[in-house]
Amino acid sequence: MLFMDMIAEIRRRHLVSKESISSIARDLKLSRPTVRKHCRTQAAPVYRRQTQPVPMLGAFQEKLETWLRRERLLPKAQRRTARRLFEGLQAEGYHGAYDSVQRFVQRWKAAKSGASLAQAFVPLAFAPGEVCQFDWSHEHVELNGVMQTIKVAHFRLAFSRQMFVVAYPRETQEMVFNAHNRAFAFFGGVPARMVYDNLKAVVETIFTGKERLFNRRFMVLANHYLFEPVACTPASGWEKGQVENQVGNIREWLFTPLARFASFDALNDWLATRCRELAARKHPVTPERSIAACFVDEQLALRQVSAPFDGYVEHMVRVSSTCLVVLDRNRYSVPAAFAGRAVSVRSTAAEVRIVADGAVIATHTRRFGRDLLICDPWHYLPILERKPGALRNGVPFREWDLPVAIELVRDRILKQPKGDRAYVELLVLARDVGLEVLQVACELVLEGNVVTAAVVLNEMRRLTAPAAPAMLAIPDMLKLHREPRADCARYDHLREVRHVIH
Fold it and tell me: What is the pLDDT of residues 306-331, one digit of tens each?
């Protein structure tokens, strides 16, 4: 296939420079018939065939059309693909290529579905505070020196085009809840409707048309904020085209080149700042105004937030004999008194709360690695009172980050006879009075020459002893003008009295 610039060169060299056809053919490595043909060419050549011949498929087209018409009435999941139709034709004696069948099926389906209108849309307009669109995207960042694939939640108010994005390590339901809390706090209110894809955290079952069975816990969120959830038609991203377009823009504006941050908190603070800065751009519908100016008008139509939603996901689990519960392949400690009992684990985007008997018995910062052990040493202190030997090799105590003074005293005490039991007594008292008291007591003891558990215990009790009561100020009217004489001799007559017992 020759391009128009080469055709122009052939014509110029032959008709203007009078170069022979043979010379042009040798120089351009073309055949002489090709050069001779293009010497007479003035319009751009068209090489695409208007119709693709299908000599092998011709005898089978009627059967293929019959199958397509019949299966068009079936549910989509029950229709055969072009590959399965090709295999069916082979069983009927077809010896042609698969491409011919594939092209025929595509043309037939396009003609029946009106594919010419597939990219035609109706312009939409939204009232202030009426609609907000939501979507997820996957981006690549460097966090604390490690390359990670993160999940970014996108929100976009349809009237003002104000955007908000926030990043998470995962795309789970508790992240969806936290993202809504952050977005509504950023917007300063709640829109009337929220538009979503059919993600599992939002939609449990898809019925015919727009009818959906929404996730029960998600509906608690919608009921708290009083917005109407709307799910798009499957594979119809144009129904929330603004946020779909925003995903590509955000990737180009904020994540290209590679973004580098120390933590998710630093990344999300920067993303919120950039969302405010990008609002200075012109509004696409009213270019004489900025997005920020339109957002100010839309904020007045948003419903005010009375309180954030407690967006946790709850799981019932049983505490192991080592006082641990498992969540997402990580283990979190629970107070020893609850070993073997069933508890409720409530996980949010930032923390893990363990609840039993209606009360929170443990709280941990949520971790997102795998096979991690997150322990609170205080949870295992009742076990140490009965088994002090576990102090030396117990994982919660070996990894306990204590002040330097306490570690120095601990090492000295553990070298003494029955030092493990003595050190446990210090921890038991520190549980009641606070670790700061133990630290001060250890610092005082280290200033002297004797370092024993008894000395540390004495210092802790002295530091926590109640202060002496202040002297009372006696009013003048209650003071004695003539104080009684201290004379014990007046009680001597009691010795002379005889007591008779009847």
Answer: 999 999 999 999 999 999 999 999 99
As beta bridge partners, residue 193 has 131, 228
Q: Is the pLDDT at 118 greater than 60, yes or no?
A: no
Predicted model pTM? 0.70
Distance (Å) of CA 169 to CA 32, 140, 218, 376, 470: 65, 11, 20, 24, 58
**DSSP 8-state secondary structure symbol assigned to residue 80:** P
355's tokens: 């609840």
Kindly indicate whether the domain formed by 131-299 is annotated with CATH number 3.30.420.10: yes
Quick one: tokens of 371? Answer: 């096979």
Mean pLDDT of 401-422: 92
Q: What share of the chain is helix, strand, coil (3-state, %, to 5)?
A: 45, 20, 40
Q: Which helix (H) or strand (E) holds 140?
A: strand 131-143
- Could you tell me the two tokens for 117? 């209108």
Quick check: 420 and 391 in contact, CB under 8 A? Answer: yes
Give the least confident one: 138-142, 253-257, 337-341. 253-257
| 3-class SS letters over 294-310 | HHHHHHCCCECCCCCCC
Query: Which of 412, 494, 485 minimizes the C-alpha distance to 455?
Result: 412
Handedness of CA 185, 187, 190, 195 (dihedral sign): negative
Q: How far is CA 334 from CA 365, 371, 395, 476, in A?
A: 13, 17, 14, 60
Query: Between the CA of residue 319 and those of 72, 336, 337, 339, what are the distances in Å?
Result: 54, 9, 10, 5
pLDDT tens column, 37-91: 888 876 666 655 556 666 678 888 888 899 998 888 887 777 888 888 999 989 9
Domain ranges, ordered by start, for the chain: 4-39, 58-108, 131-299, 313-374, 381-464
Q: Where are the alpha helices (DSSP H) in 201-263?
A: 216-225, 241-254
Query: How many Cβ atoms sit within 10 Å of the Cβ of residue 292?
Result: 16
Q: In angstroms, rounded to a whole number, what is the distance separating the alpha carbons of residues 163 and 156? A: 4
Hey, what amino acid is at 360?
A: V
Predicted local confidence at residue 17, as pLDDT:
87
